[in-house]
UniProtKB/TrEMBL annotation:
<feature type="domain" description="DSBA-like thioredoxin">
    <location>
        <begin position="7"/>
        <end position="210"/>
    </location>
</feature>
<dbReference type="InterPro" id="IPR036249">
    <property type="entry name" value="Thioredoxin-like_sf"/>
</dbReference>
<dbReference type="Pfam" id="PF00106">
    <property type="entry name" value="adh_short"/>
</dbReference>
<dbReference type="InterPro" id="IPR002347">
    <property type="entry name" value="SDR_fam"/>
</dbReference>
<dbReference type="InterPro" id="IPR001853">
    <property type="entry name" value="DSBA-like_thioredoxin_dom"/>
</dbReference>
<comment type="similarity">
    <text>Belongs to the short-chain dehydrogenases/reductases (SDR) family.</text>
</comment>
<dbReference type="GO" id="GO:0048038">
    <property type="term" value="F:quinone binding"/>
</dbReference>
<protein>
    <recommendedName>
        <fullName>DSBA-like thioredoxin domain-containing protein</fullName>
    </recommendedName>
</protein>
<dbReference type="InterPro" id="IPR036291">
    <property type="entry name" value="NAD(P)-bd_dom_sf"/>
</dbReference>
<dbReference type="GO" id="GO:0006633">
    <property type="term" value="P:fatty acid biosynthetic process"/>
</dbReference>
<keyword id="KW-0521">NADP</keyword>
<dbReference type="InterPro" id="IPR020904">
    <property type="entry name" value="Sc_DH/Rdtase_CS"/>
</dbReference>
<dbReference type="GO" id="GO:0016616">
    <property type="term" value="F:oxidoreductase activity, acting on the CH-OH group of donors, NAD or NADP as acceptor"/>
</dbReference>
<dbReference type="Pfam" id="PF01323">
    <property type="entry name" value="DSBA"/>
</dbReference>
Length: 512
């Protein structure tokens, strides 16, 4: 049997309400993933035991009584309201009439199912046990209920279930595993690991779906263009960086002396770190163009304190305002490097639930304004150094399919094409235009939708320093190309002859 696309390990307790919520949401996310992204991908889900209350009696007591005893009336009521509000969209109807006790017996039959029944038996039975306990007034210590779940949902013989419940060895191993989990630093459940990515707590369906897609897309990084699956991403270099490195951080080759660098979206996130990189490289002026005055003030103060010899200028503007953009360029007089990073990503939803206005907004900012700013810059007088550089911050979305970001991927792809069109027009002149994917960066905007500990993010200094290298002379051969910040620049330089011989290599377009 082929290895599963996703290997999921969940440390949980059957008497943990959030563990049940996590189970329900994860399966909804998997269903959506298969329905909207890739129906052929496979999932292996395994459960590990965790004992939240090791001293509960083997004879059950009413859930409500134990809940009040543990938390007190006020806190218990608050927790109940929080849980009820949190699961409104999950289809879970918590009952308060179940009976709670030592959960070890349930863990014993669950552990047995790791070796008995079909590959999904354990996962199905976990869901059934928790559903009966939480929604159908079940008793977690009722061995007949547990056996019924194993037989009728797990499709395993009754004798095997009874043997598991009577096994002292299995009971002892449950305690050992639960203790090992605490020793390993797992202090709360659910604790989910998907292909090595740790998720603590019960995440929303949207977050889980996004994570599954991100994991799948990253799994293809480094494969050849003939790899199986949706949108495998080829890469031209063997070395693949997630953090900055000396070759781009200090040996980038960019000389900022006397130069003006204008950065859109430059007051926060990736743009802010790019601003710092150019200031550190000795640029004469660093110009931050963004909508947020508050963020600009904070960024300006930080940059001026760190780089007192650099003139930090801020321009509050909506980049869709053509006249304002033209006024900014006119007032500056000279711009040597233009970094385009302002962009919008509409709300996450499947394509049929996205409004037309969401699509229009994405294209207005990501495509039309990109075209407007680049055109304005390219039609200005040539700077005294007789060269112009445009660095467009792109996205991995142009290579992949995200069913919840229909407008984002399409608009960023269009923006990359716009850059390539400008590049083809200025082939023989002292103009360099390069687009690049910055990596998976947990920017403030991203953090609003995805937890910082949900994903192995790239270091934000990587795209900042890579942009600096792109602005230097070594990258001139990448004019009109689309590259990734992860790609090793030594190995990219080694591909110079190939890139110059093959005009469509590292460009965005239809491949037949």
């Amino acid at each position: 049997m082929a290895n599963p696309t996703f290997t999921i390990t969940i440390t949980a307790d059957t008497i943990c309400a959030w563990c049940y919520v996590n189970h329900v949401r994860l399966h909804k996310a998997i269903h959506l993933y298969k329905k909207t992204y890739c129906s052929t991908d496979t999932f292996s889900i395994r459960y590990k035991p965790y004992i939240l209350q090791p001293h509960l009696p083997t004879t059950s007591v009413p859930v409500q009584d134990k809940f009040l005893e543990r938390f007190g009336p006020t806190r218990a009521s608050t927790i109940e309201r929080l849980i009820d509000r949190s699961v409104l969209g999950d289809g879970i109807k918590f009952s308060k009439n179940g009976r709670v006790g030592d959960s070890r017996a349930s863990h014993q039959v669950i552990a047995m199912l790791a070796h008995e029944g079909d590959k999904d038996a354990q996962d199905r039975v976990v869901g059934e046990i928790m559903k009966r306990y939480y929604e159908q007034d079940g008793d977690i210590t009722d061995q007949e209920m547990l056996i019924d779940c194993v037989v009728n949902v797990g499709h395993v013989d009754r004798d095997i279930a009874v043997e598991a419940l009577n096994s002292k060895e299995l009971r002892s191993s449950i305690d050992e595993e639960a203790t090992a989990a605490r020793t390993a630093g797992i202090n709360g459940v659910p604790y989910t690991v998907i292909n090595g990515v740790v998720i603590e707590g019960a995440r929303d369906v949207e977050e889980l779906l996004t994570l599954l897609i991100d994991i799948k897309q990253n799994a293809f990084v480094g494969q050849t263009a003939n790899a199986q699956g949706p949108n495998p991403i080829s890469r031209p270099t063997k070395s693949y960086h997630h953090n900055t490195y000396e070759r781009i951080s200090s040996l980038h080759g960019f000389d900022g002396t006397g130069k003006t660098v204008l950065i859109t979206g430059g007051a926060s996130g990736i743009s802010h770190h790019i601003s710092k990189a150019f200031a550190k490289a000795g640029a004469k002026r660093v110009v931050l163009v963004s909508r947020s005055t508050e963020a600009q003030v904070k960024a300006k103060e930080e940059l001026e304190k760190a780089f007192p010899d650099v003139n930090i200028l801020t321009c509050q503007a909506n980049i869709t305002d053509g006249q304002k953009i033209r006024d900014i360029f006119k007032e500056l007089g000279t711009v040597d490097v233009l970094v385009l990073n302002a962009a919008v990503a509409h709300r996450r939803a499947v394509a049929t639930d996205i409004d037309v206005q969401d699509i229009c907004d994405a294209f207005e900012v990501n495509v039309v304004s990109t075209f407007l700013i680049a055109k304005t810059y390219l039609t200005m007088s040539m700077p005294s150094i007789k060269s112009k550089t445009i660095i467009s911050v792109s996205a991995r979305a142009i290579h992949t399919i995200n069913p919840q970001r229909v407008g984002y991927g399409a608009s960023k792809t269009a923006a990359a094409q716009v850059m390539q069109s400008f590049a083809s027009q200025f082939k023989e002149e002292n103009v360099k235009i390069v687009s690049f994917h910055p990596g998976s960066i947990c920017t403030p905007g991203i953090a609003q939708n995805i937890s910082k500990n949900m994903f192995p993010w790239d270091d934000v200094e990587l795209p900042a320093d890579f942009a600096l290298w792109l602005a230097g002379p070594e990258s001139d051969f990448l004019h009109g190309r689309h590259v990734w910040a992860h790609w090793d620049v030594h190995e990219l330089i080694a591909l110079k002859d190939k890139i110059e011989r093959q005009p469509e290599f590292l460009t965005i377009g239809l491949v037949q």
